[in-house]
Each structure stands twice: as structure tokens, then as C-alpha cells.
Amino acid sequence: METIVKPDPVRRGARMPDYAAACRTFSWAEARAQMSGLPDGRGLNIAHEAVDRHAETRGTAVALRILGRDGATTDITYADLRRRTSRFANALGMLGVTRGERVFTLLPRTLDLYVAALGTLKAGCVLSPLFSAFGPEPVAERLRLGEGCVLVTTPRLYERRVRPVRDGLPALRHVLLTGDPAAGPDDGDEGFSSLAHLLEAADDAFAIPPTDPEDTALLHFTSGTTGRPKGAVHVHEAVVAHHATATAALDLGADDVFWCTADPGWVTGTSYGIVAPLTHGATLLVDEGDFDAERWYRVLADQRVTVWYTAPTALRMLLRHGTDAAARHDLSALRHVASVGEPLNAEVVRWSAEALGTPVHDNWWQTETGAIMISNFAAEDIRPGSMGRPLPGIEAAVLERGPDGRALRVDGGVREVVDPGTDGELALRVGWPSLFRGYLDQEERYAASFADGWYLTGDVVRRDADGWFWFAGRADDVIKTAGHLVGPFEVESVLMAHPAVAEAAVIGKPDPVAGELVKAFVTLRPGWEPDAALHDELLGFARRRLGSVAPKELTVDPHLPHTRSGKILRRLLKARELGLPEGDLSTVETS
Ligand code: AMP
């Protein structure tokens, strides 16, 4: 088995120097004791741990360093972040927004996003951050399901993504617009407020109300194969896992300059792109710009980034950009690189050991787990291509699968795979603080995610004889494109809304850079011709409504395969598309 062995200085400097010892001694109770808690025993609040706690002891340290698209750099100290987030919490109060109500953000990565996110948590409201590249349909669907009562967004995003669907959002009482107050709708227009005016009028002191660790803090939408997006509910207690896993898996501490390239619209961008670096008192780098290889190398070098958390797609793009590109930059400050979200190719790990001076540490988790569960560690050898081993405090198992591809239920229980190297569903023993507490309004779906004390992840993995986990695929049909999870049903529903489309099926098609790309197959209603104009029209139609999750490829196919009960067989479509064996066809409708 090929391993990458770390040089000794790295082993000695790591914050978790001995994995086996840490597993033996770790306890969640001790991890909880690392949190300061609200004063006077008033509970546990994520924003207090991330901001206020440090404002008292090291207020002048830089909490956020924001790199503007225009090249400007803005430093926000912990003391300043405390005042700004307090103003936001007070502003919610001025609007009559009460605890437990849901505040959505639809914002690019600007200071406003971080202030709104943490201010919302301070106020005891529930934060639901949306990805700003979503089109109007995904935005509306999530706001509707989550009954968002406040939306913080830019005037431009409002016009493009929200105004077309606003009528279908009766719960939305307040839209707070960022930017120049003069450019947006007037204060006083129904439901609109200028965020700048509100913050100006608000007091910059705020006492976080008592917060029960089990109070809901975050609502993150994720996708399954069927049905509407699932709103995964997370509580304030999750901060214990955000903090502890950042030490163990990201080797993060107070003296680090940390860059997480994930957008807060996805769970990584919140747990590790907002919360964990701040609970550690580190400096969190925020880059407003999009991916650009040269720019990213410059950021790593000029900002002296010490810990970098990114995604396989970005690393593959850097690799393609050329091996010598990294050598033109001084990356000597870079101590630890980690990635998540999709399979990380072994050659990228080897490339980065050379080019970046440190191998990439792959790790695994998902929206529902709230924090990193399986990882390669700073002081441990790496097996390129493996996701690593469970974090201290986490027990993982590989469960035998039934005919539906999911864990086999035997007399209400489950069975672990015995032979190393055999596929099975990845399961995690329930009991860590950031495990989701529910799918919003979908209790049955939530209950179905558990069996016999295990949370069932929906991922298929293998464990080797030494306990290292290897990703094999998904047990369902969800698509991972550039690290972002896309539910085929959501895309199919939008395509079906076009008058030409009789039926639609969407699959993930392997792509060397993005992992998978979204590919759609449609059958047409009578009277429509499958010509180039219609092809472009359908892609454009989906793009305008879905934004970044729209299909990149589309084929008109009059013979989509169905089961005998009438469901489209995406799996078979995918096998055909890739020229793979078609598997068991006994349930396929052939007429
Ligand atoms: P999300 O809930 O959007 O964060 O997506 C979680 C899913 O991403 C997991 O269930 C996996 O299918 C996939 N994933 C996350 N990390 C990895 C990894 N290191 N290797 C392979 N797949 C991963």
C-alpha cells in the first residue's frame, strides 16, 4: 500500500501529534469544556464562542481579512466584529424579528455576509445561508420551505433572483438590502430596509440572550434523489464539534491564517468558513473573488496562509494550470492543506506534496454530520486516494447493503461488513454534537436515516485492513459537481416546466475537472422538433431558473428507460451514457 510519510518536523509540530493516543483519550465532554459558554451559565451560543469571547481577551487581533475583488484589503478585529454583529442583532430586534425566526442570506462573500450570519446567531434567530449563484427556483424553494422571514441580499441579486418569485413567499416580511442605500428601494417601501441605515441606527452593544445548546442555530439545505430539498437542522451545541474537529483534522489554532475557499452557502463554508476559525481566534481570510489560479497562488503567498481548506475541483484546476506555477510563489508559510466534498485523486495528493510543499489531506463529511468525520491527519502518514480514518470521538462502520443499495435491515438491526475491502454503506455511531437534529418538516425521512444507533450516510465506502476508509460512490443518484451536491429531481422539475418537455431525467456525468457535470435527458411533447435551437433554448431555460446547478449538457432521447412501475431509471441512463454494463434489467420496462 503506497503511503506518503511526513517529515519529522511536521509530525512534531502537529496539534494532534499522536492519532491513536488521541482516540483513546478523547471525550466530547472535554471538548465541550473548551467552550467558554455564555456568561453566568446562560447556555451556549455559537456567536459568543466565535466572536464575543475573543473580543474581551484579544480584541485587537484580526478576525476577518477581506480581500476585495478590486484588490483592497479590509481587516476586521474581533472587537470590531463584536460591535458589528451586535448592531445586526439589535437591528433584527428593531424590526420585530423574534428568536427562532429564520434569517436567510443570499450574498456574495462580503463583510455583510459574515456580520449578518453571526448577528443572526447572536439574536437567537436561525441562519440559513443560500449560495448566491443559485437561480430564482432554488432560492424560492428554500425560502418557502424554510419560511424565511428575513432575507439579506444585494439589490442586484434581489432583482434577478427574488423579485420574480416574491409573490410565492408570504412568510418573507423583511428584505435587507446591502450596498449604497440610495441605490436600492427607499426605506419605508413595503418590506425593504437598507442594511446600512439599520446598522447605523442600531446600538453596538448586545447581550446574547440565554441560549440552550439544543436551540436551533443553522438550517442548511441539501439534496436527495427524490422530492424537495431537505433542510438539515443544526443546533448551537454543534460548535463543540466545529471547534474540536478543526484542531484534529485541519491542525488549526489561534496563530493561524486560515483560508477556506468554500462559499458559506454550502455547509463547509459555514462550519469551517465562518465558525471554526473564529472559535479558535485565528485570522479568517475571505476572498471576494472567484477561482483564478494565479490569483489563488498570490493569496496563499502574499497573505502567508498557514492552513488552507479547499476542494478537489480547485486543486485539479491548479494542477492543470502547470506544475511550475506554484514554484513562482513563496508558499513557505503553508503548513497544512486539506480538501473535502468529492473524491480526491491520488495524483493530486502526490502533486501537492511536490508543488505546494505539503500533501493534501482529504477528509469526508456531509451537511447532516455538521463537521468533519473522517480525515487524514497532519502528523500521520497519508494513503493517497483514501479519505483517512475517523476523528477521535467518532465511530464509523461499513454496513452490508441490501438490493436497494442501502444498509440491509435485519430484524430491525444492521450488519457490519466483515471482510476488509468489501463495499458497504458508511454509517456513524450517533452521539457527536453536530449531528443534525432533523430534516425540516420531514420527520419520516429523518427517522429513515437511522438504524440501530447508527446514522446512515448514503455513501458507499470500503475499509482496508488497517482501518483506512476509501470512497466508492453514492448509494443514491445525487450528483456532485465541483463539490456541490445537486438533486436530480430539482433539475428535472424545472425542465419539465418547459412546454416542449414531456419527461426529464438528470444524471452526473464524469468530468476530469468538476468530478461530475449535470447532464439532462428529455423526451419531447408531440409537435416539437429536436433541433439545435430547441436544445439551446432548453439549456438557457434551465440556466435562467436554476443558476449554477443547471445542466451543462442535454440530449433529446425518445426512449428513456423506465421501471415497470413507471420510474425513470437514472442509473441505467448513466450506464448507457458511459458505455458500462447495464446490470440487472429485470425491473426495466422494455415495451
Ligand atoms: P454535502 O452534504 O453537500 O457536503 O455533500 C456531502 C457528500 O459529498 C458526501 O455524502 C459524499 O458523497 C461527498 N463527499 C464529501 N467528502 C468527500 C470525500 N472526501 N471524498 C468523496 N466524497 C466526498
Overview of this protein structure:
- The chain is an alpha/beta fold and 591 residues long.
- The protein folds into three domains: 320 residues, Rossmann fold (3-Layer(aba) Sandwich), CATH 3.40.50; 82 residues, Luciferase, domain 3 (Roll); 100 residues, GMP Synthetase, Chain A, domain 3 (2-Layer Sandwich), CATH 3.30.300.
- The chain contains 19 helices and 29 strands.
- The strands form seven sheets. The protein has a nine-stranded mixed β-sheet. The chain has a five-stranded parallel β-sheet with strand order 4-3-5-6-7, with helices on both faces. Strands 17, 18, 20, 21 and 22 form a five-stranded antiparallel β-sheet that branches.
- The protein is globular.
- The protein starts with 7 loop residues before the first helix and ends with a strand.
- The model has no long low-confidence stretch (mean pLDDT 94).
- Adenosine monophosphate binds next to strand 14, strand 21 and strand 22.
- Pfam families: AMP-binding, AMP-binding_C.
- It comes from Actinomycetospora lemnae.
- Keywords: Acetylation, ATP-binding, Ligase, Nucleotide-binding.
Structure, briefly:
By secondary structure, this protein is of the alpha/beta class. Helix 4 runs parallel beside helix 11 and helix 5 (78-94) crosses helix 6.
Defining traits:
Rossmann fold; globular; five-stranded parallel beta sheet; nine-stranded mixed beta sheet; binds adenosine monophosphate; 31% helix; 591 residues; Luciferase, domain 3; GMP Synthetase, Chain A, domain 3; alpha/beta; 29 strands
